[in-house]
Amino acid sequence: MKTYLVTGGAGFIGSNYIHYMFNKYDNDIKIINVDLLTYAGNLENLKDVENRDNYTFVKADICDKDAISKIFAENDIDRVVHFAAESHVDRSIKNPEVFVQTNVLGTLVMLNCAKAAWDNGDGTFKDGKRFLHVSTDEVYGSLPDGNDYFYETTPYDPHSPYSASKASSDFLVKSYVDTYHFPAVITNCSNNYGPYQFPEKLIPLIINNILSGKKLPVYGDGKNVRDWLYVMDHAKAIDMACEKGRLGEKYNVGGHNEKQNIEIVKIIIDTIAEMLPDTDERKAHINYDLITYVEDRKGHDRRYAIAPDKIKSEIGWEPETMFAEGIKLTIKWYFENTEWMNNVTSGDYQKYYQEMYK
Ligand code: NAD
Ligand code: DAU
After folding, report:
1. From ligand 2's centre to the CA of 261, what distance in Å?
2. Is the pLDDT confidence value at 226 over 90?
């Protein structure tokens, strides 16, 4: 039985990944989830797995070397799947320090603890160990409008403090591969959407605003392009890259689903209007007049688009969920989880929203 140390498993992608893994492997794996439970971490995301005998939650900071070493000392960890990070670009523009702390120094702590635990003492590592570093396409910078793509060979050119911190963490992982032959694989994924995403990100923010009758803030001209991937497809890619990826390699993961932000907002408006019953009084007010163009994000990357050819040809992964289907599944999840949304949007979120969109 393999033991997984998952970092950031109480966040959006981490919690979906844990659901994916238990769904796939059931009792054949053990998962230890280490998460600091920042504003983005939420144990409600994991309610249906919390009583499993093969699941453990540890509240700890990945920057805390003693806490992380203790987990390695007490468990024979086979896989590290490293999600924990500060993940929101707008917050990184306002407060970059915590991004360097968690994303760079936290990754260094994870690498050092895994390296120490897996070291045979003769410059080699124990057989079969793997460290999967979850990264982003934002490290590649911005593409002009057109049909160029990000490849694994595209030079890094990050623009925001968030993407610069993720690029630094990728380089640290690469340096451990190159220097120590450390058994790591990196995945660089495009924008995810799906259940449990915190409503600071475009798709859940728009869904929540529509359902609560608020304006829909679109940055700049609304024509920035993102390549959207359903989160469960990402979870599958991570599992496959972890098991079948060549050590020391990086793999781009993307949905082949480029859309302008304004298209996304209009699709969500149309889909919610279609899905709400006629008896719902909110329906009459759901239309494009809710869209409000607001000041652009500083340093806003124009376009992201992933070429996922390498992961397809080497590992056999492909995106499976069409956007039309994924967005309905997502909206349905938010319809059915109003209590989750109410809980995460009370308190600090209100302060964040006022400050961000004033
Ligand atoms: P998220 O913000 O929803 O979750 C991050 C999780 O990390 C939270 O549970 C939080 O509590 C935890 N965390 C933060 N700081 C920590 C610390 N110091 N110690 C321990 N835990 C800590 O993020 P997400 O959207 O799920 O992203 C997960 C990973 O995937 C990140 O590394 C991100 O860069 C990467 N990624 C995200 C996307 C996307 O579209 N969301 C796309 C590609 C890659
Ligand atoms: O590409 C992968 C990245 O995708 C991940 O590495 C990040 O962790 C994740 O947050 C996401 O980054 P983005 O900045 O692309 O996602 P966000 O949802 O914040 O914004 C998507 C686009 O929508 C972006 O062009 C900015 C725009 N936007 C966003 C918000 C929150 C708006 O127009 N209005 C908004 O209110």
Report:
1. 9
2. yes
Please give the Cα distance from 211 to 231 (Å, whole number).
22
Measuring CA to CA, how many Å separate 169 from each of 110, 115, 287, 317, 332? 11, 16, 42, 24, 35
Is 162 annotated in the active site? yes
Q: What is the pLDDT of residues 230-247, one digit of tens each?
A: 999 999 999 999 999 999
**How far, rounded to the nearest angstrom, does the alpha carbon of residue 112 sit from its chain's CA centroid?**
23
For the CA of 357, the closest atom of ligand 2 is 36
Indicate whether residue 33 lines ligand 1 (CB < 6 A): no
Question: What confidence tens digit (pLDDT) does each residue in 134-164 have?
Answer: 999 999 999 999 889 999 999 999 999 999 9
What is the rounded CA–CA span in Å between residue 306 and residue 252? 7
**Gap between the Cα atoms of 229 and 248, Å rounded:** 24
250-264 residues labelled b (16+ CB within 10 A) or e (exposed): bbbbbbbbbbbbbeb
| pLDDT tens-digit readout, 323-341 | 999 999 999 999 999 999 9
- Kindly provide the b/e burial profile for residues 227-244, where b requires at least 16 CB atoms within 10 angstroms of the residue's own CB: bbbbbbbbbbbbbbbbee
Rg of the Cα trace of the chain?
20
Give catalytic status of residue 352 as yes or no: no
Give residue 67 CA to ligand 2 midpoint distance, Å. Answer: 32
* Known catalytic residue at 138: yes
Neighbours of 271 (CB within 10 A): 18
Which residues does residue 2 pair with via DSSP β-bridges, in sequence order? 29
| Residue 295, pLDDT above cutoff 90 | yes
Q: Is residue 136 within 6 Å of ligand 2 at its C-beta?
A: yes
Residue 293 binned pLDDT confidence (cut-offs 50, 70, 90): very high
* For residue 347, pLDDT beyond 90: no
Q: In whole angstroms, what separates CA 133 from the centre of its chain?
A: 12
Name the residue of 34, 59, 87, 163 to mutate for ligand 1: max ligand atoms within 8 A of Cβ: 87
| Residue 329 pLDDT | 98
Name the phi and psi angles at 148, rounded to 5.
-85, 160
The fraction of the chain above a pLDDT of 90, given in percent, is 98
